[in-house]
Amino acid sequence: MVIGHECAGIIEETGSEVKDLVPGDRVALEPGISCWRCDLCKEGRYNLCPDMKFFGLPPFHGSLARQIVHPAYLCFKLPDNVSLEEGALCEPLSVAVHACRRGNISPETNVLVMGAGPIGLVTLLAARAFGAPRIVNVDVDGNRLSVAKELGADGVVQVSTNMQDIPKEVETICNVMGAKVDVSFDCAGLSKTMSTAQSVTRAGGKVCLVGLGHNEMTVPLTPAAAREVDVIGVFRYKNTWPLCIELLRSGKIDVKPLITHRFGFSQKEIEEAFETSAGGGNAIKVMFNL
Q: Which family does it belong to (predicted)?
């Protein structure tokens, strides 16, 4: 099984019907091919297509290869000032952009981000680009929170993995935020992170479940429902690549600090890259350059 779904590359050859791309063009690839026939696709919510062919999701091969074939309409040209590495990061950034759209982030929205892993960090960057005036990041890892602070988080809170600590941590988060939390993004997808997000979000606010850590979780839905806190699902993205590329081109978002390691494409380097990624530590995004 060939994996990989965050990618960018250079066009080598095009089909006879392709008019907008030529060999030599640098492009970022959206990795999901939807059917465009089902009701969800017709509604424009193609990210929910039940027949989606997604890079690296069995039985479909991914992009960890020297060459791939992909529909031209899912290949987006990169401006001269946007690198292939940044183009590859349009995929995780798209998750964050879609989440911000789902959460209606604006200059009037204070944001809490649960998790400071790769998705939590790009969600921080996207929320800032969407105009959020105050953003607080929460994580169990102090090193990741340091990165969040460097990327522009207004405040950070280190928490434990103990469910019993939620009331105390909710109080700390509110103090660090210094205002009501309008929208929370759970970028971990665990019982504790979701429970914390629901508890800290103001009445009438929104909790967006971005991370899919566990298939099942136990959360206090009744108190959240009594305060009309909306729980919003976020799955992949739709129509995000043009905006992501513009955010990178304009400098409104800089994803380069997220790239912590780079490797070539030899067997030895590939194995080392996976070991680096699995080891955690200071690894955020591990990049292959062919």
A: Belongs to the zinc-containing alcohol dehydrogenase family.
